From TrEMBL:
Keyword entries, A-Z: Flavoprotein, FMN, NAD, Oxidoreductase
Enzyme class: oxidoreductase
Catalytic activity reported: FMNH2 + NAD(+) = FMN + NADH + 2 H(+)
Pfam families from the UniProt entry: Flavin_Reduct
Physiological role: Catalyzes the reduction of FMN to FMNH2 which is used to reduce pyrimidine by RutA via the Rut pathway.
InterPro entries: Flavin_Rdtase-like_dom, NADH-dep_flavin_reductase, RutF, Split_barrel_FMN-bd
This enzyme's EC code(s): 1.5.1.42
Domain annotation Flavin reductase like: ranges: 25-170
Organism domain of life: Bacteria
NAD recorded as keyword: yes
Signal peptide: none
Stated name of the protein: FMN reductase (NADH) RutF
Amino acid sequence: MQLATLEMIRDLPAPVSRLDYRDAMAHMAAAVNIVTTDGPAGRAGFTATAVCSVSDEPPTLLVCLNRSASVHPVFTAHQSLCVNTLCDDQRALSNLFGGKTEMAERFAAANWTTAVTGAPLLEGAAVSFDCRISHSTSVGTHDILYCEVLAVRQRDAADALVYFGRNYHGLPGAAC
Ligand SMILES: NC(=O)c1ccc[n+]([C@@H]2O[C@H](COP(=O)([O-])OP(=O)(O)OC[C@H]3O[C@@H](n4cnc5c(N)ncnc54)[C@H](O)[C@@H]3O)[C@@H](O)[C@H]2O)c1
Ligand SMILES: Cc1cc2c(cc1C)N(C[C@H](O)[C@H](O)[C@H](O)COP(=O)(O)O)c1[nH]c(=O)[nH]c(=O)c1N2
């Protein structure tokens, strides 16, 4: 194996720091979601922007959940969840579910129903995806939850909520 020379090491780019990475990621706009679960380990929910579509056959999305989050044990116990994508008029929910708030207080601020898994579906959400967690992997500080979508519910016309530059922005909706 060729030993790296000092010149080679010196020429390597400095690794991206956590703060530089976060500054960079603040430039990536994202949808804002309340991810919920319910079952024997109780009802839980958190705000998530690290959510995206994976495949349409079978319908699958992914959610990245920080293992240090208070809700992490509940989601891993249930292996099911619902991704509720917020509309512009639901900004306050994002902060409420964004941590440090009692779970009962979080859920008291909105109306909920259920579909297949029993995970709470948010009334008035732009769209809700009721899912079974099919498998997960751990990368760095987060678990990546791969979720098979078992049911969907969508609201026809709604203004979208976007998170960009560490702030919320409304996006005028069209009939979807
Ligand atoms: N993926 C995540 O876990 C994630 C995403 C967004 C916000 N947050 C939380 O919300 C707080 C406020 O975020 P902000 O956007 O106002 O400012 P920030 O500077 O803390 O984060 C800027 C961007 O960096 C990314 N990021 C932040 N923390 C992360 C983490 N632990 N793992 C992976 N990516 C991360 C997100 O894209 C975020 O929008 C953050 O400190 C974090 O606790 C977490
Ligand atoms: C706009 C926005 C976006 C996200 C978050 C927060 C906010 C405000 N949080 C953090 C998460 O909601 C919550 O703050 C942490 O889980 C800590 O919550 P507890 O205090 O442990 O309940 C978050 N956490 C996570 O694990 N994955 C994610 O994608 C996101 N995205």
